[in-house]
Amino acid sequence: MRSEGHLGRAAALASRHPSYHVDGANGTARVCVDLDLPSDWRLLDDFSGLLRGESDTEYAADGAQLSAEDLFGGLRCFLRKQRTGRAAREWCTPGSLADKQLFPCRQIRVYDNDHLTGNSWYAFGKMDDEAAFEVDKDAITERVLSDLGPCVRCPILDLDSTAEIVARLPERIDPNRDQSWGYREDGDLPGWKVVKTRNGREEAAPQEDGEGLIERLARSVRSGGAGVAAASGTAPGSRNVPATRYEDVGGMRETIDLIRESVELPITHPEIFRKLHIRPHKGILFYGPPGTGKTLLARAVAHESGAHFVAVSGPEILNKFWGQSEAKLRSIFNEARAKAPAIVLFDEIDSFASSRDMMSESFEATLVSQLLSLMDGLNSLGRVCVIATTNRPGALDPALRRPGRFDHEIEIGLPDAEARLHILGIHTREMPTDPDLDLDQIAGLTGSYSGADLEALCREAALVCMRRTINLRDFEKRIASHQLSALSVTTYDFRTAVKRIGPSIRR
Asked: For the residues 318-340, what does the mean pLDDT come to?
């Protein structure tokens, strides 16, 4: 901000700011101060009162010259929010709009209404020759910018997140391919909130409890494949089914049986649950020491179920920019519904869903609340299952472990001797091994090893074999074939590796 002429109290106020400086000299001197938002909002608020109407004051934002009205008009909503002391979520998403708001800004009047109006996002577009509705994202973007006006400079408005919301809207909605959308022939606007039953009666479109915009968009494009971009980077319409099988998991037969019963059966044989009039578990918690194969099991059950697999590491979902973490979380559930049957895996869920009483950042508590809301909104009779893994089940927010959420817990413990032997066999089946290799002996020496520890042990044993067979100081650029043929992993190599690679639980 720059001001010419007599500054009075404003100049005195500016002089106390670290960025205060004077440009020019004598009659051309300009008192200057650079403010950062949102941290300097109080000072800016004071200046807005002192300098409003002062014709000799010049303003700039991000290097661009602005009028006082453009600057303070654009920040008026932000300054009101700061004066009230309310959190961004409360102010930007007021309770009166919470059930229909699409964008994280009260100024944007494009809504996710249950009933079609001129402000509904699905009112922007036109019917094509195949009786499908083409969503006009350019028109939605123009409306968003028009509604924002000068508020586009609000320091807590995340424009990237706003643009992402528009991008996730479907390109095309075809009610002939997705019965969750239908035609409404009366009125001047196309209607999508009416579903026709088989006997021709019309009834309100069923909505899942807690289901928001993105979830409904996912269902709207499930058949057409032109909707929400996958959170994991897969292209719309494609499905990610892992190649991992149950036989790739060492041992744990009883654990696998529990997982098949709680995850695989509801996906592959939902008729069992319908006959019994029970709902399958929405969320399953895998807990146990690190490296015991929790993630591997999740991938294996996805493969055996033919389910689309969305894997999310807990730390990668955290983002301190308001609304981005929640948007990513919604897009994950969005993708799962669009590509159901699906399994969503939250690896290391304790990294972002620990007890809210212990959280230091408010956005983390908001993220947990968003996850709870999305879990409550899952009513897909096993078509979408959410698996979470943790090494610290006691650290999770208690609300996550209540009925209807992660209410089924499966302990993934350290492998027993039989399982260790199986795991060692998996990791050595492609190795050149000595005919006298005694894996039973090695299984007996590795009582506290996890599956990951055993994999590391096999790797180290192979390296011991390499060091024993090939002189790394003298070998030439090309290793002779007889040296490669001599590579054979022995019991001695494993016993040496055991001395170097101990169980991680003791580290």
From this structure: 74
